[in-house]
Amino acid sequence: MGPLSGARIIEFAGIGPGPFTAMMLGDMGADVIRVDRAAQVASNPARQSKDVAARSRRSIAIDLKHPEGRAIALQLLESADGLIEGFRPGVMERLGLGPDTCLEHNPRLVYGRMTGWGQDGPLAEAAGHDINYISLAGALYPIGRSGEKPVPPLNLLGDFGGGGMLLAFGIVCGLFEAQRSGQGQVIDAAMIDGSAILTTMIYALRAMGAWSDTRASNFLDTGAHYYDVYETADGRYISIGSIEPQFYAELLAKLGWDPSELPDQNDKAAWPQLKQRLEEAFAAETRDHWVALLEGSDVCFAPVLSMAEAHRHPHNVAHGTFMEMEGIVQPAPAPRFSRTRPATPGPPPRPGRDTTQVLSELGWKDEDISNLRATGAIG
Predict the structure, then answer these.
(1) The whole model's pTM is what?
(2) For residue 58, what are the contacts with CB-CB under 8 A and spacing of at least 6?
(3) How far is Cα 88 from Cα 326, in angstroms, rounded to an integer?
(4) DSSP line for 260-303
(5) Any catalytic annotation for residue 288?
(6) Exactly one of 129, 289, 311, 313 is catalytic; which is it?
(7) Catalytic residue among 159, 193, 221, 354
(8) How far is CA 286 from its chain centroid?
(9) Is 129 a catalytic site residue?
(10) What band does 42 get if pLDDT is binned at 50, 70 and 90?
(11) Cα–Cα distances in Å, from 236 out to 19, 148, 340?
């Protein structure tokens, strides 16, 4: 089931974007086996994770610093198509699991590396988080209101858009190429690179003279009155994105405004005046009033929903944008495929839950598995 059915990916457990990559590949049908730390299992063997980004995979617990544990990891990789690791540069090499070693054991392996700054450069060894990567990439500076400091867009831009999705794309590209060449390679997915590439359209607008580096002075950064968020009478919010002239005309018609009595839509000098007028208009009625009037029209409108509300919206329900698993609401797998539809994801596994099963598939006997557990090589 799923377009990646038949592919096996080994994920070395980490945080944030690496697990997100594994979830995306697992959601699409890949057999993802997460290598958890044996010590983690020993400290809390019954823990059931509610981290929905850990869904769609199996878990094996190994002590990678134990000689037999490392040997098991290499054996796992011999039967794998891809690998995901998100440690600082050099960690996998010190564990004896660097690219040279792993590709020697499996020349077809696609070795996916997730870092913040990349594998090289003066900052490669430095610690960092999403907010730092998007800062240096130039992606954070434009996000914010006029006269205010930049606003971090949660950790969506660097960790997940510029990180997890970039690595998932890289691995799938690597798998595709390996089918033709028979050779694996190393994928260097740096969050600073991913954050930068997400700004490509803005760089294009700058080159065309259609974008200013002054925050909140452009048509996509809350500078324009026709692309912004507005508060309603009940303290909620709506979003307007009437960029194209025909959509802007629809907005004015819905509001009962005569275009001939207004400044031109793209007269920047008039944007503050028009924004104030829209603020006053939208603040006069509730969010539900504007939903009834504008939703589904060509105004380019949507209510601003909280995470508690989003999964209940009629469109999201009908479209299946979200799903519920073991009482936890979460985004459903995406994108969708007409023929190779993936199975419904399984819940996040307890660390080490599938150790015995995976080792049995590799040819280990029950007695040998018991001995490995006794030595601490596995959990």
Answers:
(1) 0.94
(2) 31, 32, 33, 34, 349, 353, 354, 357, 358
(3) 34
(4) GGS--TT-GGGHHHHHHHHHHHHTTS-HHHHHHHHTTSTT-EEE
(5) no
(6) 129
(7) 159
(8) 33
(9) yes
(10) low
(11) 34, 22, 40
